[in-house]
Design brief:
The chain has 8 helices and no strands. The chain is mostly helical. α2 crosses α4, α3 packs across α4 and α4 packs across α6.
Length: 224
């Protein structure tokens, strides 16, 4: 490694890490929180077989899963202004990432809900719980333990996918690397450095996932 490249990487690493912590991580957390809310709502509607709403949910999942995330970002950020709807880049990224991942996570949550024995519902009614109480206190906790590994993988995938936000000018970690590279022209070193930081973040999340799975396994829900 040349002395010049080493100096560039040494100077750029703190900046890239800063943007990763201040922008990439919050973008991931907010998007995942939105996706989880959407996933639970969509899954519960399908689980309860609410006619009309169930069909709307299936169309939503069909459209989101059938179109590329990058196209969705462009449609919202560059397309909606033609209809008079203007959104800043960061909120656009949160909305698009949230709705995109929510469609995939909804299927994971729905499968987890359906894995809970129907007898749990009957047992809840026997102790005079209403439907919402049964779902909140009995079904959802068991379903969450079952869906936890899949949801954790979705979080890790979303963290990596936030790099696409650079295409709509969100100044996150990958976008910052592009800006620096535009000055120094060291693509291999800089993008390799970004990959290393993403790997660090994902390794931390994977460690947290394994720890949480072991904790959940003590309640009989997930095998680590």
């Amino acid at each position: 490694m040349s002395e010049r490249l080493w100096e560039i990487l040494r100077d750029s690493f703190p900046k890239l890490l800063e943007y990763g912590v201040k922008v990439t991580v919050p973008l991931t957390i907010l998007s995942f929180a939105l996706a989880l809310i959407i996933a639970v709502i969509v899954a519960l509607i399908q689980y309860a077989n609410v006619q009309g709403l169930k069909q709307i949910c299936r169309v939503y999942i069909w459209i989101i899963r059938g179109t590329p995330l990058l196209v969705q970002l462009y449609l919202v950020f560059y397309g909606l202004p033609s209809l008079g709807i203007l959104l800043d880049a960061f909120p656009t990224a949160v909305l698009v990432f949230g709705f995109n991942e929510g469609a995939y996570m909804a299927e994971s949550v729905r499968g987890a809900l359906e894995s809970v024995p129907k007898g749990q519902l009957e047992a809840g009614y026997c102790v005079r719980m209403n439907y919402l109480q049964i779902m909140w206190h009995v079904v959802l906790p068991q379903a969450f333990r079952t869906a936890f590994p899949a949801l954790s993988n979705s979080l890790i995938s979303m963290l990596k996918g936030t790099s696409l936000a650079a295409t709509i000018t969100v100044m996150e970690m990958f976008r910052q690397a592009q800006v620096i590279n535009g000055r120094v022209y060291e693509s291999l070193g800089l993008y390799g450095e970004v990959a290393l930081i993403y790997l660090m973040f994902c390794t931390i999340l994977t460690g947290v996932q394994h720890w949480a799975e072991k904790k959940l396994s003590s309640y009989g829900g997930v095998r680590a």
